[in-house]
Amino acid sequence: MMLLHFVELFELDRDANQKKIATFRLTEESGIVEIDGDHSHRIVEDIKGEGIFDYKYARPGKLYPNDGMKFLENLKYHFRSGYLLATDVEKQVTPTP
Amino acid sequence: MSEGKQFETPPKTNEPQSVEDLLEKGEIESVHALKGFERYDLVKIKDDGGGLFRPTIEDNKYNKNLYLRKELELLVFAIDNALEFDLVPTVVNRDIEDRNGSLQRFIKDDGFEVANLLDWQTLVEDTELMKAAVFDFLIDSKDRNDINFMFNPVSKRIKLIDHDYYMLINFAGHFKSFILSMAIKRGLIKLPEEIKRALENLLGKIDSIMGPDSRPEIRQILDGVKERAEKLIATGILV
């Protein structure tokens, strides 16, 4: 069995419907957050390139997908406006491939 | 003082009073929770668009972002009203389904989009950029990147959102606002007379915004706004 942590990111469109932009996935094995979704979406491009701040522990510097769980657990604070909204970190146990 | 009147909100000159009235008293057609960690309900109001409702949650032990959430949103809206800048979407205090919270106008159906998704830097005009830069300087915004303001590519207007704990009280990152940086990059540092007059209007109203029973954090923010407004008027320079 393999433990997967993930965060989903939603965008609110003009008709007030929420659409999923991306799912950020972290497995215990890799330690790097992988992004499923439209990689050409500007939000996804920017978050990979520009990173996000550490809102949770206020550590200096920025966090990137390579930072694993530290990056994943800060997405919900970075995307908090309602127009862009991330879920909390969720867990899923999947069969080992 | 009633909860809904914590801050004086003088009528705006460039927005119909009915927007505030509709948010405060309009008949609610539907309410549904959005998916996400931060709690939002999308509220549809009869004969109007709708709003984003953030219920007040007393237990903020595990999420400091909820701390003073409603109070901070209402405070920043009151500052914007006093300046008559029209930069902050209308927000009101409201009870919905037995929960109290802030209800802010949903502005995507007015043509606004998250700034990150647009080439706002090339589209925004100097006057609007300077107003928003002055506003961010005044409130000492600590987390203004291009996902927490909106831009309308037709009207070229800016709307500032996410006025919460991380934006106003404590955020270790505390970087210079994207908007303020862009204004300085364009050399927009000399304040025009209309902005100086707006700042004088703000100073004239700041005690009524503060109210007699404001929380210490609110008083501290307003003291900072007052100090920075006085500095801007004295120097005439945005830095």
How would you describe this protein?
The complex is a heterodimer of chains A (97) and B (239). Helices cover 18% and strands 38% of the residues of chain A. By secondary structure, chain A is of the alpha+beta class. Chain A starts with a strand and ends with a strand. Chain A contains three helices and seven strands; from the N terminus they run βββαββααββ. Chain A has helices at 42-50, 69-72, 75-78, and strands at 2-12, 18-27, 34-37, 52-53, 62-63, 84-86, 90-94. The model of chain A has no long low-confidence stretch (mean pLDDT 93). Chain B is 38% helix and 17% strand. Chain B contains eight helices and eight strands, in the order H-E-E-E-H-E-E-E-H-H-E-E-H-H-H-H. In chain B, strand 4 and strand 5 form a beta hairpin. Chain B is globular, with a radius of gyration of 17 Å. At the A-B interface, strand 1, helix 1, helix 3 and strand 6 of A face strand 3 of B.
List the helices and strands and how they pair.
The complex is a heterodimer of chains A (97) and B (239).
Chain A: E1 2-12, E2 18-27, E3 34-37, H1 42-50, E4 52-53, E5 62-63, H2 69-72, H3 75-78, E6 84-86, E7 90-94
Chain B: H1 17-25, E1 28-33, E2 41-45, E3 50-55, H2 69-83, E4 91-96, E5 99-105, E6 113-114, H3 120-123, H4 126-139, E7 149-152, E8 157-160, H5 165-168, H6 178-185, H7 193-210, H8 216-235
Antiparallel strand pairs in B: 1-2, 2-3, 3-5, 4-5, 6-7, 7-8
Helix pairs in contact in B: 2-7, 4-6, 7-8
